[in-house]
Amino acid sequence: MDMQTHVDTDVVVGSSGTTANDVIAVARHDARVVVSPEALAAVAASRQVIEDLAAKPDPVYGVSTGFGALAVRHISPELRAQLQRNIVRSHAAGMGPRVEREVVRALMFLRLKTLASGRTGVRPVVVETMAALLNAGITPVVHEYGSLGCSGDLAPLSHCALTLMGEGEAEGPDGVLAPAAELLAAHGIEPVELREKEGLALLNGTDGMLGMLVMACADLARLITSADVTAALSLEALLGSEKVLAPELHAIRPHPGQGTSADNMLRVLAGSGMTGHHQDDAPRVQDAYSIRCAPQVAGAGRDTLAHARLVADRELAAAVDNPVVLPDGRVESNGNFHGAPVAYVLDFLAIAAADLASIAERRTDRLLDKNRSHGLPPFLADDPGVDSGLMIAQYTQAALVSEMKRLAAPASVDSIPSSAMQEDHVSMGWSAARKLRTSLDALARVIAVELVAATRAVELRGGLTPSPATAAVLRAVREAGVEGPGADRFLAPDLAAAEAFVRSGGLVEAVEAVVGSLG
Fold first, then answer.
1. Which of 15, 182, 229, 255 has its CA 20 to 30 A from that of 449?
2. Residues 363 and 222 in one domain
3. Could you read off the pLDDT of 26-50 as tens digits, one per residue?
4. The pTM of the whole model exceeds 0.90
5. Of 61, 289, 344, 395, which one is the catalytic site residue?
């Protein structure tokens, strides 16, 4: 994932949603959050609706009743503040390792976005305190397990709400864990005393899975373009034909992503003195699928990503809570907290990532096999037999791909009923998001291995001149600390350097410095 750097531009939260760029700025780069006066006015107006309802004898879900299967009980006014505290405390039941800081910050920011919509009925002080926590760099401890992706990411959001109340443990801006009450006091933040509806409003959203989707879309976009570059390098190293990348061929099957990936590859290969040489001494009618069909596979991933971004944008404009305060003043129960739309695309992206990794691994294996590499030494070794070259790097790559195939099994087709069968169909969207993050980590490593193999293979073609873009990549990877062909062996430090180079966007930047912006 991206390294954390501070950005100076404020992110303004209004009542009409937010953007993916704003989520990433807050989650990954600690951008300061400002709630607009317009949003605070909308929050105050909806709060008045809730207070008016709370004063009436009629039961209203979340205001004067219990929750879930306990919604049949009417709660008297003197117990309602305790009810809101108790729902947070009882729901903060997550277990397992802590999730990443950027995930928690994304989750908090997206809950703040919904609170600021004026549809949840909380007081302005709740919104302002959530923003203050983000700006102070206070990060609640949120655990891996506890969300079923329905009725919201309940346990993760509850642990965040606990910090808002000054309870539990959190991480300070220095990365040290401390009691939340101490951290709030150190930053001059008053804990919130929850009132009617507010505990429920803090818990009832798909914010965790949406935050992870937004960040995954950004990461996968970079990785797909990186895979276009490594596919082009592999084609070049294998003396393949760039003719299959011609725009007129892709125009007759007009998938947008396919055309973009083919164009990226063609631009990387422009000016190469290596492509097409397989027709000279050992004619091949066609290159293997892993070379020839690279744009089709990467392009399908691009189009899947475009759909996922469409879903994310709709969710970023949404106000997810139950019940909600409608513009006409009605307070209505609903099912908008169900995570199915987000869960599906999280699973779709895991499938696309696994296939992209699979085809990259097949290209790597071809580069290492002397029977299929068209003149390259076995395993690209300096002294085959004495030196195993990249043999085991490909093993590692294969292990990663195998794991990604397992992670591609969808979480969203599962459902385990909860809350005494009141919540009898759930999305498992949080689980889909968690496994997608693992899958994208693996994809970066798979692409890094192909990068090491392809650049080494290009340099071993000593009598041929690579494209200007490829030459730029060769220089950049050496500057990034990846060993060249003269090394006795390729060990983890070289692969780690290549992985960091891919993750940082250095690979794409090296190419774009020569050919201009890639798709």
1. 255
2. yes
3. 999 999 999 999 999 999 999 999 9
4. yes
5. 61
